[in-house]
Amino acid sequence: MAEETAPQSTKPAAPPQAPPAAAVAPPVAATEPIEVKIKVRKPKQRSCDEKNAKGKLCAGHLKRWYDYPKEVEAKIGKEAEIYRCEFCKTLYKPDPKQMLHSFTLRY
Ligand SMILES: [Zn+2]
Q1: pLDDT in tens, 26-53
Q2: Is pLDDT above 90 for 102?
Q3: What is the pLDDT of residue 59?
Q4: I want to staple 34 with a disulfide (CB 3.0 to 4.6 A). Which of 47, 54, 68, 71 is the partner?
Q5: Residue 51 pairs with which residues in a beta bridge?
Q6: How far, in Å, is the centroid of ligand 1 from the Cα of 61?
Q7: For the chain, which residues make up each domain, given as ranges?
Q8: CA 10 → CA 4, 7, 27, 39, distances in Å?
Q9: Which of 20 and 37 is assigned the larger pLDDT?
Q10: What is the Cβ-side half-sphere exposure of residue 48, based on CA atoms within 13 angstroms?
């Protein structure tokens, strides 16, 4: 006799789904303030003088920073001259006196 072919017992297994919404961590509040530390560069200063938690000098190189985010732009203005420490990310504004000096032409 023809054997009755049992219906395939392999039900389409449910693919692993993402956990229910309740298990998903709530999104980070968008209103979280971004802390921006801005210092003023001392004349001729080329490296960071911030100290870390252990009191050690950071001494990171201050690099001109061009593509800063809106949060920073709100503080320093658009296309401002700003430098950022490569290690601790402290921002440095140029020394206002030095800037003044560079605008003054001396003959
Ligand atoms: Zn630094």
Answers
A1: 665 555 555 778 999 998 899 999 998 8
A2: no
A3: 96
A4: 71
A5: 57
A6: 7
A7: 37-103
A8: 17, 9, 38, 67
A9: 37
A10: 24
State how far the Cα of 37 lies from the Cα of 101, in Å rounded to an integer: 25
Residue 78 has pLDDT above 70, yes or no: yes
Query: How high is the pLDDT of residue 40?
Result: 94
Task: Give the number of C-alpha atoms closer than 13 A to the C-alpha of residue 52, restricted to the C-beta side.
Answer: 10
C-alpha of residue 94 to centroid of ligand 1, in Å: 15
Which neighbouring-strand residues pair with 103?
none
Rounded distance from Cα 80 to ligand 1 centre (Å):
20
DSSP 38-56: EEEPPTT--B---B-TTS-
What's the 99 CA to ligand 1 centre distance in angstroms?
Answer: 22
Which residues keep their CB under 5 angstroms from ion ligand 1? 48, 50, 58, 60, 85, 87-88
Whether the CB-CB separation of 83 and 62 falls below 8 Å is answered with yes
Tokens of 43: 């004349």
Tell me the CA–centroid distance for residue 88 and ligand 1, in Å: 4
